[in-house]
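Re: your question about AsmA protein

S., sorry for the slow reply, the queue was backed up all week. Below is exactly what I fed in.
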Amino acid sequence: MMRWVIRGLLGVAVLIGLAVAAVLLMPADRVARLAADQVQKATGRSLTVAGGVRPSLWPEIGVETGAVTLANADWSEAGPMLSAEGLAVGIDLSALLRGEIAVREVTVLAPRILLERAADGRVNWDFSAGTQAADDPAAPDAAPDAAGPGEGQGPGPLAGLTLDRGEISDGDLVYLDHASGARTELSGVDATLALPDRDGPADLKLTAVLNGQEIGLSARLGHAAALAAGDPTRLTLESALGRASLAFDGQLDLAPLSAEGKLYADLSDLRAIFAAAGATPPGLPSGVGQRLVLEGQAAYTPEGAIRLDRASLRQDGNTLIGNLAFAPATPRPHLEAQLSAGTLDLTAFSGDGSGSSAATGGGGSSGKPNGGGWSTAPIDVGWLGALDAEIGFKAEAINAGKVRLGPVRLDARLEDRRLAVDLHELQAYAGNVTGSVVANGRTGLSLAGDLDIAGVSAQTLLSDFAGFDRLVTSADLQLDLQASGNSVAALMGSLSGGGALGFGQGEFRGLDLAGMLVNLDPSYMGAGARTIFDSISASFTIDRGVLSNSDLSISAPLLTARGSGRVGLAARTLDYTIVPTALPGADGGGVSVPLRITGPWAAPNVRLDVEALAEARLKQEREALERKARDRAAEELGAGTDESLEDAARRRLGEEASKGLRKLFGD
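Result:
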């Protein structure tokens, strides 16, 4: 028994000795030269090995090199495409014993990989031009045959070359886009590539760090040799970043780079995504973005454009569907989209909840001056220059808290920092809004709007936007407005244009114009007081934030009224006069007393004009005295109901004269 053990150990020792001898006698320089030739033929780029090549026994039987570099595309000025501290090449021992070189594993130590896109769209990972030159013996840049004497032009010992495993350890990957100026850098790159069969699939696994965020990726190419030959092949890919993930299943082509297939992206971890992109995540309200998923049929074109067909974007309980196309055009990217939705719940964005809101537009400050007023915080319009876009959107309904809209149908066009929105339908407050709105950010900010608002509930609209709920009626409004400025205060101060309004039958609560007028008493205000009207109409002009009106007309059962004055839209003040007139059928019919409304919007002063009130009282007393005098005169004259005082006086004078004549003649 011991004899067989000794024989076995001696056999193993012999094999180990043969392996060591084979490694020590292995033509390492020849392996390196053959590898450089193979890379030259495959890429058209020269591979330079510095520091010599030496055999190794651990951790793999093979060879190790010093520093290596792979040349970049001839148009690049950024240095080599690949530089590394060295290579470790694992050799198949059994093949080596037969005199063949079969590569099983290649490890690239601490590489720096540079990927570039030129301003004209060329990419440095496109090796087609270089390989064509290498294959043409007459080409001046064709790679020389580095094989040793007697090896000829055939495949030689590389005929059985295989790669079970390729590995990158502790590398850096840099992507430069010279068209946009973007730079993306991955550090701590560890990757493995398995290609055991040239005619089979290739599997890639990668981990890296991008701006402090760990990224994991795994991918499988269905046919690596076909892809290397310039034919498309199937690609399945899965990637993870924090709690975010991405999956793709489709076709990939490298010459030129393009892909098409099914995409699924869970973007719920916005913090990790924005951190990886080197950007600050948006200040979303609490509870928003817990679920953010995008899926659809995706395509990436050789020009760098991205298309999503039959796309679905799910944000928490909301869903948008449609088609999108994004192209990295010059000077700005271009987005086209046609989107639709059912009911969108945007209550979390309304600013009524506890979450953060960007409504103030000025970080933690509203930018309001002391004492109230419009915000003076600068309005950032830089986002208008981020891209150009053409977007069509429709939704069955939008719930934004206080404001409920729907259906909604609009088209928006953003071009060179100018956004134009055409409202085809916007049902709100029981009415409909149509027209157009333009925001121009080319030189500061300017706004323009041409809107037709029909049949909206004035009480609900004014209550939501101004906290004023006393006007109960339906309203029609036409607006043609322009403004410019970099804050809300500046916009309101420059506001100009005009319009017209009309109110249907309704009531004004808290103010009894008829009671004020009939009793000449300004106290007819407060709970329970109201003015019922049949219609209200007016036109107005706006100049530098001041609205002027001179034709307000109110028609009511007991009175009519006209009005004129100014409304300081910028200063938020009122200086307006309403002149109601009691109708003849009312008590005190014909009485007309001006009603003055002055002061700030927040606390206006409503009062009857004192001088006009005094004149009205004097007129009323004078008319009462005149009526009393006329009644007494009529009584003394014995005037009939159909007889005027003048006729009664003449008649009475005639009667008295007749009596005097009869007495004179003794009758």
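DSSP finds eleven helices and 35 strands in the chain. Residues 4-25, 138-161, 353-366 have pLDDT under 50 and may be disordered.

Happy to talk it through on Thursday.
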